[in-house]
Amino acid sequence: DFLSPSAIGTLKYEGKTIKGKQMVETMNAVGVDFVTFGNHEFDIKETELQDCLDLSNFKWVSANIKHKTAAGYEPFAKTKNGAKEIVTPTYIINAKDADGTTVRVGVIGTTLNFTMPDYARYYNADSAAIAAYNFIKNQTDFVVLLTHQSIDQDKQLAAKLPQVQLIMGGHEHNNMLEKVGPVTIAKADA
Questions:
Q1: What whole-number distance in Å separates Cα of residue 183 and Cα of residue 164?
Q2: Average pLDDT for residues 138-148, to the nearest whole number?
Q3: Long-range contacts for 92-97 (Cβ within 8 Å, ≥24 apart)?
Q4: Which of 74, 66, 15 is nearest to 42 (CA)?
Q5: Rounded CA separation 141/106 (Å)
Q6: How far apart (Å, rounded) are the C-alpha atoms in residues 175 and 48?
Q7: In Å, how far from its chain's centre is CA 7?
Q8: How many CA atoms lie within 13 A of 36 on its CB side?
Q9: What value does the mean pLDDT take over residues 145-161?
Q10: How far is CA 11 from CA 22, 40, 47, 48, 122, in A?
Q11: CA dihedral in degrees (4, 110, 74, 141; nearest 10)?
């Protein structure tokens, strides 16, 4: 829920309401690496969401939200420097520390079903996360889930995927740190 709702998002620049662009520019400036959709990202018009996608320098991951286009339902995408970048269900970070040790971190994004607009479609978050995990698990050393759903939904997902070490989420806008078996769930503040 970083694009909407926001009082600042109602301001106009060059005759157009900024609708979340202030947050994308801020997140670009601080170096955010990954996001998944919040339910309020879909409060804004399709063209406004596309403008924010295109403006972003960070990766978007989403295993359970698709974009309704003339061709049917397909992943959202952003256009950056003339190239189309697909919002994928998963992403693998290949990291190396100073002594050369490497680690492959899998990232999966999911969003709760809330008021979806006509231009998007929601698929079951748990089913999508499990399928994405099964796809990526043998290519990674560990997997992190980025979720935007309730703490109860995160707890249920943690019980279904105890191999995942960390779920980082939002939605309630309250700082939380919970444990379900071996899975840590960290929820962000507003």
A1: 6
A2: 97
A3: 92/136, 92/139, 92/140, 93/33
A4: 66
A5: 8
A6: 29
A7: 22
A8: 30
A9: 97
A10: 10, 18, 17, 14, 30
A11: 130
What type of residue sits at position 78?
A: K
Q: Which of 136, 147, 163, 112 is nearest to 183 (CA)?
A: 163
The C-alpha atoms of residue 183 and residue 169 are separated, in whole angstroms, by 13
Q: Is the pLDDT of residue 131 over 90?
A: yes
The model's pLDDT over 46-62, given as tens digits with 9 standing for 90+, comes to: 999 999 999 999 999 99
- Compute the distance between CA of residue 176 and CA of residue 169 in angstroms, rounded to an integer: 9
- Cα angle 171-175-177, degrees, rounded to a multiple of 5: 105
pLDDT at residue 12, as a whole number: 76
Query: Does residue 115 sit in helix, strand or coil?
Result: coil
Burial of 177 (0-12, 13-18, 19+ CB in 10 A): exposed
Overall average pLDDT of the 29-46 stretch: 94
Report the chain's terminal Cα–Cα distance, integer Å. Answer: 9
Cross-strand bridge partners of residue 101: none
The whole-angstrom separation of Cα 188 and Cα 147 is 11
pLDDT at 189 (0 to 100): 81
Band (16; pLDDT cuts 50, 70, 90): confident
